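Predict structure. Input: NADPH:quinone oxidoreductase, 343 residues.
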Amino acid sequence: MKAYVLDRYGRKGHGAIRDMPEPTLGEQDVLVEIHAAGVNPLDAKIAHGEFKLVLPYRLPLILGNEMAGIVRRVGARVTRFKPGDAVYARPDKNRIGTFANYIAVNEADVATKPESLSMEQAASLPLVALTAWQVLVERANLQKGQRVFIQAGSGGVGTLAIQLAKHLGAFVATTTSNANIGLVKSLGADVVIDYGKEDVATVLRDYDVVLHSLGADQLEQSLRILKPGGKLISISGPPDADFARALGMSWPMVSVMKLLSYRIRRKAKRLGVHYSFVFMRAQGDQLGQIAALVDSGAIRPVLDRVFPFESTADALAYVETGRAKGKVVVSMKPSSADPGASS
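Output follows.
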């Protein structure tokens, strides 16, 4: 099969498309012919080597963290899917590789594709939608009437998080550039701050939750807008000890993560708020609930550009510019080859 492969970590160049063996199908796996794959900043960060300590992948590595496609074969113990099913998924962090013709995924990490979406639209959802769900529903337990500040509202996570927060009945504030104010308002944002003209900390007060996705300056700024008992939840770091324990890291690494987050946790404690870090995990059942919300019209994907598979490197470079509105996707032409043979 064809796949976009990383042979070494580095800032210049991410990899190349070449032939790779098709994935081995486990007893609880489904083999999916990938029709489209979402492109994320995470893919570029993995290629740069930024996650080598916490995600020690063995090279060569097929990049890609989310996809939509058709089930072609199932393992002997699979009960939820059958060949021909249209599905979407974020594979487990240890089994990534969606920039390829095929991928084997545990059935627990897969969900039926939203019926109302194209393959490209569906492929744009799993990583960002699961991130928004696990921050707002699981970690924040966001309730109707609460106030949430979502940074970078026009980005991949931001566009989904705004819609999910509004579905949950929250009051939503966000930041974006002047060019994207109309977009985030159309998604339901109640307060929109042009980050080029206004200081968030002077505009917002007494918020219950902050979804942080930017840098250290914005992290500490966010502390000042939370009410006592509020929750600052970061998806961009610094990671904390709970994250390390969840990944099963050794106690020295748990100590390292605890040290990395010490400063922000200390400041949060002084202000009577709570800091935590979320690294999104694969979860097929949650994707099923998200698909139902999509098909009901409660949330919709925001798709910026679709690149052909042969331009995967260009898609990654575009995502790294930070200018994408919503998500970027690469589209594969479905292979006519038998999934048990090389293509």
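The longest helix spans residues 126-139.
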